[in-house]
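Help! Submission page says 'invalid entity' but I think these are all valid:
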Amino acid sequence: MIKLSSRENPEIKRLASLLSSRREREEAGLFVVEGMRIALDAAEAGLTAETAFFSESFWQRRPEECGRIAAVADRVVLLEDSLAQRIGDTKTPQGVFALCRRPAPDLSAFDGAGRYVVLSSLQDPGNVGTVIRTACALGLSGVVLSADCPDVYSPKVLRSTMGGVFTLPVWVADDLPAAIARLRQGGGAVAAAALTETARPISRRGTPGVRSVVIGNEGNGLAPGVIACCDRSIILPMARPGQSLNAAVAAAIFMWELAAPAGE
Amino acid sequence: MIKLSSRENPEIKRLASLLSSRREREEAGLFVVEGMRIALDAAEAGLTAETAFFSESFWQRRPEECGRIAAVADRVVLLEDSLAQRIGDTKTPQGVFALCRRPAPDLSAFDGAGRYVVLSSLQDPGNVGTVIRTACALGLSGVVLSADCPDVYSPKVLRSTMGGVFTLPVWVADDLPAAIARLRQGGGAVAAAALTETARPISRRGTPGVRSVVIGNEGNGLAPGVIACCDRSIILPMARPGQSLNAAVAAAIFMWELAAPAGE
Protein backbone atom coordinates (compact mmCIF):
# COMPACT_ATOMS: atom_id res chain seq x y z
CA MET A 1 0.00 0.00 0.00
CA ILE A 2 1.26 3.46 -0.88
CA LYS A 3 2.11 5.73 2.03
CA LEU A 4 2.66 9.44 1.62
CA SER A 5 4.31 11.93 3.93
CA SER A 6 5.06 15.00 1.83
CA ARG A 7 2.81 17.84 0.85
CA GLU A 8 4.90 18.14 -2.30
CA ASN A 9 3.80 14.74 -3.56
CA PRO A 10 1.89 15.17 -6.85
CA GLU A 11 -1.07 13.17 -5.51
CA ILE A 12 -1.42 15.43 -2.52
CA LYS A 13 -1.14 18.50 -4.71
CA ARG A 14 -3.88 17.10 -6.93
CA LEU A 15 -6.09 16.38 -3.90
CA ALA A 16 -5.61 19.96 -2.69
CA SER A 17 -6.42 21.45 -6.09
CA LEU A 18 -9.55 19.29 -6.40
CA LEU A 19 -10.64 20.56 -2.99
CA SER A 20 -10.15 24.20 -3.91
CA SER A 21 -10.94 24.50 -7.62
CA ARG A 22 -14.30 24.01 -9.29
CA ARG A 23 -12.62 23.96 -12.69
CA GLU A 24 -10.23 21.18 -11.67
CA ARG A 25 -13.18 19.17 -10.36
CA GLU A 26 -15.16 19.61 -13.56
CA GLU A 27 -12.24 18.80 -15.86
CA ALA A 28 -11.32 15.68 -13.91
CA GLY A 29 -14.93 14.54 -13.36
CA LEU A 30 -13.99 14.03 -9.71
CA PHE A 31 -14.67 15.60 -6.32
CA VAL A 32 -13.37 15.13 -2.81
CA VAL A 33 -15.44 14.03 0.16
CA GLU A 34 -13.77 14.72 3.47
CA GLY A 35 -14.69 12.97 6.70
CA MET A 36 -15.83 9.48 7.62
CA ARG A 37 -19.58 10.05 7.78
CA ILE A 38 -19.91 11.64 4.35
CA ALA A 39 -17.48 9.16 2.76
CA LEU A 40 -19.66 6.32 4.09
CA ASP A 41 -22.77 8.10 2.77
CA ALA A 42 -21.15 8.35 -0.68
CA ALA A 43 -20.21 4.65 -0.63
CA GLU A 44 -23.68 3.61 0.51
CA ALA A 45 -25.26 5.72 -2.23
CA GLY A 46 -23.35 3.71 -4.83
CA LEU A 47 -20.65 6.21 -5.75
CA THR A 48 -17.21 4.94 -6.63
CA ALA A 49 -13.88 6.51 -5.79
CA GLU A 50 -10.64 6.65 -7.70
CA THR A 51 -8.65 6.83 -4.47
CA ALA A 52 -9.41 6.65 -0.75
CA PHE A 53 -6.96 8.41 1.58
CA PHE A 54 -6.73 7.60 5.30
CA SER A 55 -4.43 8.90 7.97
CA GLU A 56 -2.44 6.12 9.57
CA SER A 57 -4.07 6.59 12.95
CA PHE A 58 -7.58 6.58 11.49
CA TRP A 59 -6.75 3.45 9.50
CA GLN A 60 -5.69 1.69 12.70
CA ARG A 61 -8.52 3.06 14.84
CA ARG A 62 -11.50 2.44 12.53
CA PRO A 63 -10.70 -0.61 10.36
CA GLU A 64 -14.35 -1.48 9.77
CA GLU A 65 -15.30 1.96 8.38
CA CYS A 66 -12.07 2.19 6.39
CA GLY A 67 -12.90 -1.15 4.83
CA ARG A 68 -16.35 -0.03 3.75
CA ILE A 69 -14.93 3.11 2.13
CA ALA A 70 -11.97 1.27 0.59
CA ALA A 71 -14.39 -1.26 -0.95
CA VAL A 72 -15.68 1.34 -3.42
CA ALA A 73 -12.22 2.77 -4.22
CA ASP A 74 -9.81 1.61 -6.91
CA ARG A 75 -6.86 2.12 -4.56
CA VAL A 76 -6.03 3.14 -1.02
CA VAL A 77 -3.35 5.60 0.06
CA LEU A 78 -2.19 6.06 3.64
CA LEU A 79 -1.18 9.50 4.88
CA GLU A 80 1.23 10.20 7.69
CA ASP A 81 -0.79 11.82 10.45
CA SER A 82 1.15 15.08 10.30
CA LEU A 83 0.36 15.35 6.58
CA ALA A 84 -3.33 14.44 7.03
CA GLN A 85 -3.68 17.26 9.55
CA ARG A 86 -2.42 19.82 7.08
CA ILE A 87 -4.74 19.13 4.16
CA GLY A 88 -8.46 19.43 3.86
CA ASP A 89 -11.08 22.07 4.36
CA THR A 90 -12.21 21.43 7.95
CA LYS A 91 -10.88 22.81 11.20
CA THR A 92 -10.36 19.41 12.83
CA PRO A 93 -9.54 16.96 10.02
CA GLN A 94 -10.49 13.33 10.62
CA GLY A 95 -7.90 12.18 8.10
CA VAL A 96 -10.37 10.64 5.63
CA PHE A 97 -10.64 11.73 2.01
CA ALA A 98 -12.27 9.97 -0.92
CA LEU A 99 -11.70 11.08 -4.48
CA CYS A 100 -15.12 10.26 -5.87
CA ARG A 101 -16.35 10.16 -9.44
CA ARG A 102 -19.13 12.61 -10.24
CA PRO A 103 -22.32 10.74 -11.02
CA ALA A 104 -23.98 11.53 -14.34
CA PRO A 105 -27.01 13.75 -13.67
CA ASP A 106 -30.22 11.75 -13.81
CA LEU A 107 -32.50 14.11 -15.72
CA SER A 108 -35.35 11.58 -15.82
CA ALA A 109 -36.28 12.71 -12.29
CA PHE A 110 -37.04 16.18 -13.68
CA ASP A 111 -39.99 15.16 -15.83
CA GLY A 112 -42.41 17.38 -13.95
CA ALA A 113 -44.21 14.55 -12.18
CA GLY A 114 -42.73 15.42 -8.77
CA ARG A 115 -42.08 18.45 -6.63
CA TYR A 116 -38.98 20.56 -7.11
CA VAL A 117 -37.03 23.49 -5.77
CA VAL A 118 -35.05 25.71 -8.14
CA LEU A 119 -32.15 27.89 -6.95
CA SER A 120 -31.32 30.88 -9.13
CA SER A 121 -28.01 32.73 -8.55
CA LEU A 122 -27.65 31.82 -4.89
CA GLN A 123 -24.42 33.04 -3.38
CA ASP A 124 -23.82 31.24 -0.11
CA PRO A 125 -22.48 27.65 -0.24
CA GLY A 126 -24.05 26.87 3.15
CA ASN A 127 -27.48 27.92 1.86
CA VAL A 128 -27.17 25.72 -1.25
CA GLY A 129 -26.13 22.73 0.85
CA THR A 130 -28.87 23.32 3.40
CA VAL A 131 -31.53 23.53 0.67
CA ILE A 132 -30.37 20.20 -0.80
CA ARG A 133 -30.39 18.61 2.69
CA THR A 134 -33.89 19.96 3.36
CA ALA A 135 -35.25 18.91 -0.04
CA CYS A 136 -33.95 15.40 0.56
CA ALA A 137 -35.39 15.16 4.08
CA LEU A 138 -38.79 16.55 3.05
CA GLY A 139 -39.12 14.20 0.11
CA LEU A 140 -38.89 16.53 -2.86
CA SER A 141 -38.05 14.94 -6.20
CA GLY A 142 -35.05 17.06 -7.12
CA VAL A 143 -33.16 20.35 -6.93
CA VAL A 144 -32.35 22.50 -9.97
CA LEU A 145 -29.51 25.05 -9.75
CA SER A 146 -28.56 27.80 -12.16
CA ALA A 147 -24.96 27.46 -13.34
CA ASP A 148 -23.85 30.52 -11.33
CA CYS A 149 -24.72 28.98 -7.96
CA PRO A 150 -21.84 27.70 -5.80
CA ASP A 151 -20.50 24.34 -6.96
CA VAL A 152 -22.48 21.48 -5.43
CA TYR A 153 -19.24 19.50 -5.15
CA SER A 154 -17.31 22.15 -3.21
CA PRO A 155 -16.33 21.01 0.29
CA LYS A 156 -18.62 23.49 2.04
CA VAL A 157 -21.73 22.65 0.01
CA LEU A 158 -21.06 18.91 0.34
CA ARG A 159 -20.76 19.24 4.11
CA SER A 160 -23.99 21.23 4.43
CA THR A 161 -25.95 18.71 2.35
CA MET A 162 -25.10 16.02 4.95
CA GLY A 163 -24.98 13.47 2.15
CA GLY A 164 -28.28 14.62 0.60
CA VAL A 165 -26.52 15.35 -2.68
CA PHE A 166 -25.78 11.63 -3.07
CA THR A 167 -29.40 10.52 -2.82
CA LEU A 168 -31.41 13.39 -4.28
CA PRO A 169 -31.29 14.19 -8.02
CA VAL A 170 -29.52 17.53 -8.52
CA TRP A 171 -29.45 19.25 -11.90
CA VAL A 172 -27.13 22.16 -12.67
CA ALA A 173 -28.98 23.73 -15.59
CA ASP A 174 -27.09 25.84 -18.11
CA ASP A 175 -30.43 27.05 -19.47
CA LEU A 176 -32.65 27.84 -16.49
CA PRO A 177 -35.75 28.91 -18.49
CA ALA A 178 -35.64 25.59 -20.36
CA ALA A 179 -35.31 23.72 -17.08
CA ILE A 180 -38.31 25.58 -15.62
CA ALA A 181 -40.33 24.75 -18.77
CA ARG A 182 -39.43 21.09 -18.28
CA LEU A 183 -40.66 21.10 -14.68
CA ARG A 184 -43.99 22.37 -15.97
CA GLN A 185 -44.48 19.42 -18.32
CA GLY A 186 -46.22 17.33 -15.68
CA GLY A 187 -48.99 19.91 -15.33
CA GLY A 188 -47.81 21.48 -12.08
CA ALA A 189 -47.32 25.23 -11.81
CA VAL A 190 -43.91 26.78 -11.10
CA ALA A 191 -43.98 29.64 -8.58
CA ALA A 192 -41.38 32.38 -8.18
CA ALA A 193 -40.63 33.32 -4.58
CA ALA A 194 -40.77 37.02 -5.33
CA LEU A 195 -42.58 40.10 -4.10
CA THR A 196 -44.23 41.16 -7.35
CA GLU A 197 -47.43 43.16 -7.72
CA THR A 198 -49.46 40.01 -8.20
CA ALA A 199 -47.64 37.90 -5.58
CA ARG A 200 -49.90 35.99 -3.22
CA PRO A 201 -48.94 34.88 0.26
CA ILE A 202 -48.75 31.14 0.66
CA SER A 203 -51.04 29.94 3.36
CA ARG A 204 -51.50 26.89 5.50
CA ARG A 205 -54.21 25.86 3.04
CA GLY A 206 -51.46 25.12 0.56
CA THR A 207 -50.61 26.58 -2.80
CA PRO A 208 -52.98 24.72 -5.10
CA GLY A 209 -51.40 23.46 -8.27
CA VAL A 210 -47.90 24.66 -7.42
CA ARG A 211 -45.36 21.86 -7.54
CA SER A 212 -42.13 23.84 -7.89
CA VAL A 213 -40.75 26.97 -6.29
CA VAL A 214 -37.89 29.15 -7.54
CA ILE A 215 -35.68 30.87 -4.93
CA GLY A 216 -33.44 33.82 -5.80
CA ASN A 217 -30.23 35.44 -4.62
CA GLU A 218 -29.82 36.26 -0.91
CA GLY A 219 -29.39 39.97 -1.47
CA ASN A 220 -31.06 40.72 -4.78
CA GLY A 221 -33.87 38.17 -5.04
CA LEU A 222 -34.98 36.81 -8.40
CA ALA A 223 -34.11 38.47 -11.70
CA PRO A 224 -37.16 39.72 -13.69
CA GLY A 225 -36.27 37.36 -16.54
CA VAL A 226 -36.54 34.36 -14.23
CA ILE A 227 -39.81 35.58 -12.68
CA ALA A 228 -41.21 35.90 -16.22
CA CYS A 229 -40.57 32.16 -16.79
CA CYS A 230 -42.77 31.25 -13.81
CA ASP A 231 -46.55 30.84 -13.67
CA ARG A 232 -47.07 33.03 -10.62
CA SER A 233 -45.34 34.65 -7.67
CA ILE A 234 -45.71 33.66 -4.06
CA ILE A 235 -44.40 35.17 -0.83
CA LEU A 236 -44.17 34.26 2.82
CA PRO A 237 -46.10 36.87 4.79
CA MET A 238 -43.81 38.75 7.19
CA ALA A 239 -45.10 39.71 10.62
CA ARG A 240 -43.00 42.84 10.87
CA PRO A 241 -42.25 45.39 8.13
CA GLY A 242 -38.75 45.25 6.69
CA GLN A 243 -38.06 41.75 8.00
CA SER A 244 -36.90 38.93 5.80
CA LEU A 245 -35.93 35.29 6.04
CA ASN A 246 -32.63 33.60 5.31
CA ALA A 247 -32.82 32.08 1.79
CA ALA A 248 -32.45 28.49 3.03
CA VAL A 249 -35.14 29.06 5.68
CA ALA A 250 -37.57 30.58 3.18
CA ALA A 251 -36.89 27.70 0.78
CA ALA A 252 -37.56 25.22 3.61
CA ILE A 253 -40.97 26.69 4.43
CA PHE A 254 -41.96 26.76 0.75
CA MET A 255 -40.78 23.14 0.37
CA TRP A 256 -42.70 22.14 3.49
CA GLU A 257 -45.86 23.54 1.93
CA LEU A 258 -45.11 21.97 -1.47
CA ALA A 259 -44.08 18.62 -0.08
CA ALA A 260 -47.49 17.73 1.31
CA PRO A 261 -50.18 20.30 0.53
CA ALA A 262 -53.31 20.49 2.63
CA GLY A 263 -55.67 17.64 1.97
CA GLU A 264 -53.05 15.14 0.85
CA MET B 1 -13.58 64.95 17.51
CA ILE B 2 -11.21 62.21 18.54
CA LYS B 3 -9.31 60.49 15.76
CA LEU B 4 -7.44 57.24 16.29
CA SER B 5 -4.78 55.60 14.17
CA SER B 6 -3.11 53.00 16.37
CA ARG B 7 -4.20 49.50 17.20
CA GLU B 8 -2.43 49.96 20.52
CA ASN B 9 -4.83 52.67 21.62
CA PRO B 10 -6.70 51.51 24.76
CA GLU B 11 -10.08 52.27 23.16
CA ILE B 12 -9.29 50.10 20.18
CA LYS B 13 -8.06 47.32 22.44
CA ARG B 14 -11.31 47.54 24.38
CA LEU B 15 -13.36 47.42 21.17
CA ALA B 16 -11.46 44.31 20.07
CA SER B 17 -11.94 42.58 23.41
CA LEU B 18 -15.67 43.37 23.43
CA LEU B 19 -15.89 41.85 19.94
CA SER B 20 -14.15 38.66 20.97
CA SER B 21 -15.08 38.02 24.60
CA ARG B 22 -18.52 37.19 25.97
CA ARG B 23 -17.28 37.80 29.50
CA GLU B 24 -16.03 41.28 28.64
CA ARG B 25 -19.39 42.06 27.06
CA GLU B 26 -21.33 40.85 30.08
CA GLU B 27 -19.14 42.66 32.59
CA ALA B 28 -19.30 45.92 30.67
CA GLY B 29 -23.01 45.62 29.81
CA LEU B 30 -22.03 46.51 26.25
CA PHE B 31 -21.76 44.87 22.85
CA VAL B 32 -20.44 45.85 19.45
CA VAL B 33 -22.51 46.13 16.31
CA GLU B 34 -20.43 46.18 13.16
CA GLY B 35 -21.66 47.50 9.84
CA MET B 36 -23.95 50.32 8.76
CA ARG B 37 -27.18 48.38 8.28
CA ILE B 38 -27.18 46.72 11.69
CA ALA B 39 -26.01 49.92 13.44
CA LEU B 40 -28.97 51.74 11.88
CA ASP B 41 -31.29 48.92 12.97
CA ALA B 42 -29.99 49.24 16.54
CA ALA B 43 -30.51 53.00 16.51
CA GLU B 44 -34.02 52.69 15.07
CA ALA B 45 -34.91 50.09 17.70
CA GLY B 46 -34.12 52.62 20.42
CA LEU B 47 -30.77 51.30 21.60
CA THR B 48 -28.16 53.77 22.75
CA ALA B 49 -24.40 53.58 22.22
CA GLU B 50 -21.54 54.66 24.40
CA THR B 51 -19.35 55.29 21.36
CA ALA B 52 -19.82 55.22 17.59
CA PHE B 53 -16.69 54.55 15.52
CA PHE B 54 -16.47 55.46 11.83
CA SER B 55 -13.62 55.15 9.36
CA GLU B 56 -12.71 58.53 7.88
CA SER B 57 -13.73 57.51 4.39
CA PHE B 58 -17.09 56.18 5.56
CA TRP B 59 -17.69 59.37 7.55
CA GLN B 60 -17.11 61.44 4.41
CA ARG B 61 -19.02 59.13 2.06
CA ARG B 62 -22.20 58.54 4.09
CA PRO B 63 -22.80 61.63 6.26
CA GLU B 64 -26.54 61.03 6.54
CA GLU B 65 -26.23 57.49 7.90
CA CYS B 66 -23.33 58.46 10.18
CA GLY B 67 -25.49 61.22 11.59
CA ARG B 68 -28.36 58.84 12.40
CA ILE B 69 -26.00 56.46 14.18
CA ALA B 70 -24.09 59.27 15.94
CA ALA B 71 -27.42 60.67 17.21
CA VAL B 72 -27.82 57.74 19.62
CA ALA B 73 -24.16 57.72 20.73
CA ASP B 74 -22.61 59.66 23.60
CA ARG B 75 -19.51 60.32 21.52
CA VAL B 76 -18.05 59.75 18.08
CA VAL B 77 -14.55 58.52 17.28
CA LEU B 78 -13.02 58.58 13.81
CA LEU B 79 -10.68 55.80 12.73
CA GLU B 80 -7.95 56.10 10.15
CA ASP B 81 -8.97 53.88 7.24
CA SER B 82 -5.96 51.61 7.63
CA LEU B 83 -6.91 50.98 11.26
CA ALA B 84 -10.62 50.44 10.49
CA GLN B 85 -9.64 47.74 7.97
CA ARG B 86 -7.73 45.80 10.61
CA ILE B 87 -10.37 45.52 13.31
CA GLY B 88 -13.71 43.82 13.28
CA ASP B 89 -15.09 40.40 12.60
CA THR B 90 -16.06 40.62 8.92
CA LYS B 91 -14.02 39.90 5.82
CA THR B 92 -14.69 43.26 4.19
CA PRO B 93 -15.11 45.80 7.01
CA GLN B 94 -17.31 48.82 6.29
CA GLY B 95 -15.58 50.82 9.01
CA VAL B 96 -18.65 51.28 11.22
CA PHE B 97 -18.80 50.11 14.83
CA ALA B 98 -21.22 51.07 17.58
CA LEU B 99 -20.56 50.20 21.19
CA CYS B 100 -24.16 49.63 22.26
CA ARG B 101 -25.64 49.22 25.71
CA ARG B 102 -27.35 45.89 26.32
CA PRO B 103 -31.07 46.39 26.78
CA ALA B 104 -32.58 45.00 29.97
CA PRO B 105 -34.46 41.80 29.08
CA ASP B 106 -38.20 42.44 28.90
CA LEU B 107 -39.59 39.38 30.64
CA SER B 108 -43.18 40.63 30.46
CA ALA B 109 -43.30 39.31 26.89
CA PHE B 110 -42.81 35.78 28.27
CA ASP B 111 -46.12 35.56 30.13
CA GLY B 112 -47.34 32.62 28.07
CA ALA B 113 -49.90 34.59 26.09
CA GLY B 114 -47.92 34.40 22.86
CA ARG B 115 -45.99 31.88 20.83
CA TYR B 116 -42.38 31.08 21.62
CA VAL B 117 -39.35 29.13 20.50
CA VAL B 118 -36.90 27.78 23.07
CA LEU B 119 -33.29 26.89 22.18
CA SER B 120 -31.58 24.40 24.48
CA SER B 121 -27.80 23.94 24.22
CA LEU B 122 -27.49 24.98 20.59
CA GLN B 123 -23.91 25.10 19.38
CA ASP B 124 -23.74 27.04 16.15
CA PRO B 125 -23.89 30.87 16.32
CA GLY B 126 -25.34 31.06 12.80
CA ASN B 127 -28.22 28.78 13.81
CA VAL B 128 -29.03 30.88 16.90
CA GLY B 129 -29.02 34.07 14.86
CA THR B 130 -31.09 32.53 12.07
CA VAL B 131 -33.71 31.29 14.56
CA ILE B 132 -34.03 34.79 16.07
CA ARG B 133 -34.33 36.32 12.58
CA THR B 134 -36.98 33.76 11.61
CA ALA B 135 -38.94 34.15 14.87
CA CYS B 136 -39.02 37.90 14.32
CA ALA B 137 -40.14 37.65 10.69
CA LEU B 138 -42.83 35.04 11.43
CA GLY B 139 -44.28 37.05 14.29
CA LEU B 140 -43.44 34.93 17.32
CA SER B 141 -43.56 36.66 20.70
CA GLY B 142 -40.07 35.81 21.90
CA VAL B 143 -37.08 33.48 21.94
CA VAL B 144 -35.77 31.75 25.08
CA LEU B 145 -32.18 30.47 25.15
CA SER B 146 -30.46 28.22 27.67
CA ALA B 147 -27.38 29.88 29.16
CA ASP B 148 -25.03 27.50 27.31
CA CYS B 149 -26.13 28.65 23.84
CA PRO B 150 -23.76 30.96 21.92
CA ASP B 151 -23.90 34.57 23.13
CA VAL B 152 -26.68 36.49 21.39
CA TYR B 153 -24.40 39.55 21.36
CA SER B 154 -21.46 37.85 19.65
CA PRO B 155 -20.68 39.34 16.22
CA LYS B 156 -21.69 36.21 14.33
CA VAL B 157 -25.06 35.79 16.05
CA LEU B 158 -25.82 39.52 15.72
CA ARG B 159 -25.09 39.38 12.00
CA SER B 160 -27.29 36.32 11.44
CA THR B 161 -30.24 37.89 13.28
CA MET B 162 -30.25 40.74 10.71
CA GLY B 163 -31.35 43.09 13.47
CA GLY B 164 -34.08 40.75 14.75
CA VAL B 165 -32.47 40.69 18.19
CA PHE B 166 -33.23 44.41 18.59
CA THR B 167 -36.96 44.08 18.01
CA LEU B 168 -37.86 40.63 19.34
CA PRO B 169 -37.77 39.87 23.09
CA VAL B 170 -34.92 37.44 23.80
CA TRP B 171 -34.50 35.80 27.20
CA VAL B 172 -31.33 33.98 28.22
CA ALA B 173 -32.70 31.78 31.00
CA ASP B 174 -30.38 30.49 33.71
CA ASP B 175 -33.13 28.09 34.79
CA LEU B 176 -34.61 26.59 31.64
CA PRO B 177 -37.24 24.38 33.38
CA ALA B 178 -38.55 27.47 35.21
CA ALA B 179 -38.67 29.37 31.92
CA ILE B 180 -40.61 26.56 30.26
CA ALA B 181 -43.06 26.51 33.18
CA ARG B 182 -43.57 30.24 32.72
CA LEU B 183 -44.38 29.84 29.02
CA ARG B 184 -47.08 27.36 30.03
CA GLN B 185 -48.84 29.88 32.27
CA GLY B 186 -51.02 31.20 29.46
CA GLY B 187 -52.56 27.78 28.93
CA GLY B 188 -50.60 26.81 25.81
CA ALA B 189 -48.70 23.54 25.66
CA VAL B 190 -44.91 23.40 25.26
CA ALA B 191 -43.68 20.77 22.81
CA ALA B 192 -40.22 19.22 22.68
CA ALA B 193 -38.85 18.69 19.18
CA ALA B 194 -37.64 15.20 19.99
CA LEU B 195 -38.03 11.69 18.66
CA THR B 196 -39.44 10.02 21.78
CA GLU B 197 -41.68 6.97 21.90
CA THR B 198 -44.78 9.11 22.15
CA ALA B 199 -43.66 11.78 19.67
CA ARG B 200 -46.25 12.72 17.08
CA PRO B 201 -45.48 14.18 13.67
CA ILE B 202 -46.70 17.71 13.21
CA SER B 203 -48.98 18.02 10.25
CA ARG B 204 -50.38 20.69 8.05
CA ARG B 205 -53.47 20.50 10.22
CA GLY B 206 -51.46 22.20 12.92
CA THR B 207 -50.45 21.17 16.39
CA PRO B 208 -53.54 21.97 18.47
CA GLY B 209 -52.83 23.67 21.74
CA VAL B 210 -49.07 23.91 21.21
CA ARG B 211 -47.80 27.48 21.51
CA SER B 212 -44.11 26.84 22.18
CA VAL B 213 -41.51 24.49 20.76
CA VAL B 214 -38.16 23.54 22.29
CA ILE B 215 -35.25 22.83 19.91
CA GLY B 216 -32.14 20.92 21.02
CA ASN B 217 -28.47 20.65 20.17
CA GLU B 218 -27.47 20.12 16.52
CA GLY B 219 -25.71 16.82 17.17
CA ASN B 220 -27.27 15.45 20.33
CA GLY B 221 -30.82 16.74 20.30
CA LEU B 222 -32.65 17.54 23.53
CA ALA B 223 -31.52 16.26 26.93
CA PRO B 224 -34.04 13.92 28.65
CA GLY B 225 -34.35 16.39 31.54
CA VAL B 226 -35.54 19.11 29.17
CA ILE B 227 -37.95 16.79 27.36
CA ALA B 228 -39.43 15.91 30.76
CA CYS B 229 -40.30 19.59 31.32
CA CYS B 230 -42.42 19.65 28.15
CA ASP B 231 -46.05 18.60 27.68
CA ARG B 232 -45.43 16.42 24.64
CA SER B 233 -42.96 15.62 21.88
CA ILE B 234 -43.35 16.47 18.22
CA ILE B 235 -41.29 15.62 15.15
CA LEU B 236 -41.10 16.62 11.52
CA PRO B 237 -41.71 13.49 9.43
CA MET B 238 -38.68 12.66 7.26
CA ALA B 239 -39.21 11.34 3.75
CA ARG B 240 -36.06 9.25 3.73
CA PRO B 241 -34.65 7.14 6.58
CA GLY B 242 -31.60 8.54 8.30
CA GLN B 243 -32.19 12.06 7.00
CA SER B 244 -32.39 15.09 9.24
CA LEU B 245 -32.83 18.83 9.05
CA ASN B 246 -30.49 21.63 10.04
CA ALA B 247 -31.57 22.91 13.49
CA ALA B 248 -32.47 26.39 12.23
CA VAL B 249 -34.50 24.90 9.36
CA ALA B 250 -36.38 22.52 11.68
CA ALA B 251 -37.05 25.41 14.07
CA ALA B 252 -38.36 27.49 11.15
CA ILE B 253 -40.87 24.86 10.05
CA PHE B 254 -42.08 24.36 13.64
CA MET B 255 -42.41 28.14 14.05
CA TRP B 256 -44.27 28.40 10.76
CA GLU B 257 -46.80 25.88 12.07
CA LEU B 258 -47.00 27.56 15.48
CA ALA B 259 -47.21 31.07 14.12
CA ALA B 260 -50.55 30.60 12.40
CA PRO B 261 -52.10 27.17 12.97
CA ALA B 262 -54.74 25.80 10.65
CA GLY B 263 -58.07 27.54 11.00
CA GLU B 264 -56.64 30.86 12.12
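Support: the input was valid. A stray whitespace character was the problem, and the output above is from the cleaned input. Chain B touches chain A at residues 126, 130, 133-134, 136-140, 160, 162, 164, 167, 204-206, 236, 238-240, 243-246, 248-249, 252-253, 256-257, 259-262 (CB under 8 Å).
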